[in-house]
Amino acid sequence: MLAPIRRIKTEPLLFHTFNYAALLLVAVVTLYPFLNTLAVSFNVGTDTTRGGIYLWPRMWTMKNYEAVFVTGHVAHAFWVSVARTLAGTVVGVYLTAMLAYTISRDEYMFRKPITIIFVLTMYFSAGLIPTYFLIKDLHLLNHFLVYILPGLISAFNLLVIRTYIRSLPESLVESVKIDGGGDFRVFVSVILPLCTPVLATIALFIAVGQWNSWFDTFLYASSRQNLSTLQYELIKLLSSTTSSNGSVSLAAGVKQGGTEGLITSLSIRAAITIVASVPILVVYPFLQKHFVSGLQLGGVKE
Description:
By secondary structure, the protein is mostly helical. The chain is built from 13 helices and two strands. The chain has a domain at 72-240: MetI-like fold. The protein starts with 9 loop residues before the first helix and ends with a helix.
């Protein structure tokens, strides 16, 4: 007796084919701008103006990156940005989590007024000029702490962490207090370990904001070269690499060599973009596993 012929179901096959094709298209559309910028950053500037650079440089060169790092200010500004990012992220996450735990406790009588005050800051701002005079009165001008203190606690981050903490079982807090532990013991031993996903998410938000910030340097610390950040130095470099014919000579100290001695605003912009974005791209994979779960659990209250 012959075995029955198995029919191939076409619906699942078509669905998976379309699904994989759509995901591949999204991946290509997402990665192409970055890969194209990377290729332009390694291509000779005068050759880039001809067009036709897609995923691979046509004429390799390191002149664009030499122009970025030749002055020496960029290397120092890089470490200033690293310092402000690390300090701002660690202190900001810890203090925001501590305040979020405080206003999440029902027995704390001032939790609602404090929450309302922070929520109001999301809708109203005093403006740039009053903020500048406040920073000046606090003696934070041309001081490293101007990068840390003004944006130490964000109302959005505070509400996200508070919502996450309120979703935790109250029995865990009560068990620690029965054993004689206080609120600080509860916060360190219970809240912080259980809040790892949402804290990693908030840490990524704060780190990206600190790393990309340059306007505060321009306003409050532009007269101190030793406090200049990477983004501010790159902004100054980008604004200086403009000319009427679209190309500029490399900064002083770099020996020119024919057409490779010239860069264009397009090529230097690509190099600046790569220099500014690579550190965040290196850090992000380590926090990615906590990002989605932390944002989902911390942003929705059941």
